Amino acid sequence: MTKITVAKGDGIGPEIMDATLAIILAAGAQIEVEHVEVGEKVYLAGNTAGIAPESWDIIRRNKIFLKAPITTPQGGGYKSLNVTTRKFLGLYSNVRPCMSLDPFVRTKHPVMDIVIVRENEEDLYAGIEHQQTDEVVQCLKLISRPGCEKIVRYAFEYAKQYGRKKVTCFTKDNIMKQTDGLFHQVFDEIAKEYPEIENEHWIIDIGAAKMADTPELFDVLVMPNLYGDVLSDVAAQIAGSVGLAGSANIGEECAMFEAIHGSAPRRAGQNLANPSGLLQGAVMMLNHIGQTEVAEKVQNAWLKTIEDGTHTYDIFKEGISKQKVGTSEFAQAVIANLGQQPSLLKPVFYAKNTALNLPKYKRKPAASKALVGVDVFVHWNGTSPDELAQIVQKIDKPGLKLSMITNRGIKVWPEGFEETFCTDHWRCRFKPTEGANITKQDIIELLSNAVSENIDTIKTENLYTFDGKAGYSLGQGQ
Ligand code: NAD
Fold first, then answer.
1. N or C, which terminus of the chain has less Cβ within 10 Å?
2. Ligand 1 atom closest to the CA of 71, numbered from 1
3. Partners of residue 378 on adjacent β-strands
């Protein structure tokens, strides 16, 4: 018996949760349910997180969380409970299978069966944003080696356990050589540990186009957070309907399972909603807690029900569907099909042990790190880079000189193009002169000189090498 936390959520949440629990319990799931209240009511009672501290205690104690969609009230100040839960509980892996159910659910891609494994904690979602000048705001894209190793290993272990043949990585490392470059590098390193699984890397733009056009070429896909967020919705939609997909959010200790759609408030309380998305989340949960036989029974009964043409309104199509049913009738039809298998759709067979072998991250020995320069970012309202260079060169120190100015990453001094459009946000790169070494004290003196010269410095980034390899990008055009 596994104790799980259940949140019925808002809108259609309670109906689809009742349907889902009825199905998995009828299939023999050995679970004990503990309910928590999250979402709209909690938000509107003045808790901006949408969840009470006592509920966190229950979720952390039980470790397994099945969550129906919730409504985030309109207006500022309310934090997304999904994002908070993922980050608080360290749910680093978001797993979203997307398969077509042709010919029973209409799709342009009849042969599609992919799983998107999305990094869930970092990238641009660290939410570290600043306005630095009148014209420029920034968002920090943070990619870590532990983050990359954990998610890439998860993708390969998932492929191994579920008998998948290939793992594809999507990044934009031709442009973001440090951040996406690290993700790609770690992918190549870890892929070597799984010689039995094919691996490949695509630049995200053409990769995404290929996935939307010929999804049958892909199997498991792994990618950083933002790309995964966008592409997993594309994949669910082209498979037939976002209403049919579930997702798992997996951490080292805890895991959360859900449908990918929202609370559909306009459909609430009318016994109309399709419980399939949440049911797919529950099947992943059953696999995760080792109740694979129950998971298999539920999934095959669900496939058979779809195949029988017993459809809720959202997937009902004249000529394809046989019977339009409500939420509870759909659940009853799945329950009646327990023990049966689909005949046209491919039945599932889950391995008896679906526990993944995921070692805890071990920190690598520190590299030899050397300070080799500094980027000083300046807010300046002029337009001529040559003029700015003259101003900024006044703060040069012996052994540490202005070497380059860029604007939005493009080199504008020395030898820039007149055509390059410049904002009020400038990066001034200082490098040691031939044979000189620099220290943090030199940077402090440089900034102190800038204050004396009335230069509006907005931030600095130290330039380092790690074991002799540059840990910073060149200016575009440099
Ligand atoms: P939505 O997913 O709730 O609805 C989009 C459309 O799909 C609607 O037409 C809806 O009727 C339909 N739909 C969705 N699920 C369905 C189902 N199971 N069966 C039949 N039809 C279904 O998206 P939305 O309208 O943009 O958002 C509504 C609320 O849900 C918002 O408050 C949003 O913040 C929240 N939301 C929550 C989650 C979550 O908790 N995981 C995710 C997304 C949105």
1. N
2. 32
3. 426, 457
Helices 179-191 and 145-161, axial angle in degrees (round to 10): 40
Q: Which domains does the chain have, with CATH numbers?
A: 369-470 (3.30.70.1570)
Which residues make Cβ contacts (< 8 Å) with residue 158, sequence separation at least 6? 95, 115, 117, 164, 220, 356
Residue 232, classed as helix, strand or coil, is helix
Q: Collect the ranges in the chain with pLDDT lower than 70.
A: none
Q: Measured at the alpha carbon of residue 112, what is the angle toward residues 305 and 257, in degrees to the nearest 5?
A: 65
* E strand or H helix at 17: helix 13-26
The arrangement of strands across the sheet holding 400-407 comes to 410-413, 400-407, 425-432, 369-379, 457-466, 469-470
For residue 46, the model assigns a pLDDT of 86
Cα–Cα distances (Å) from 87 to 77, 114, 144, 361, in that order, read 18, 25, 15, 17
- Alpha-helical segments (H) within 369-436: 385-392
| Cα dihedral value 171, 175, 176, 181, nearest 10 | 60
Q: What is the pLDDT of residue 354?
A: 72
Q: For ligand 1, is residue 244 a contact (CB within 6 Å)?
A: no
* Residue 77 CA from chain centroid, whole number: 23
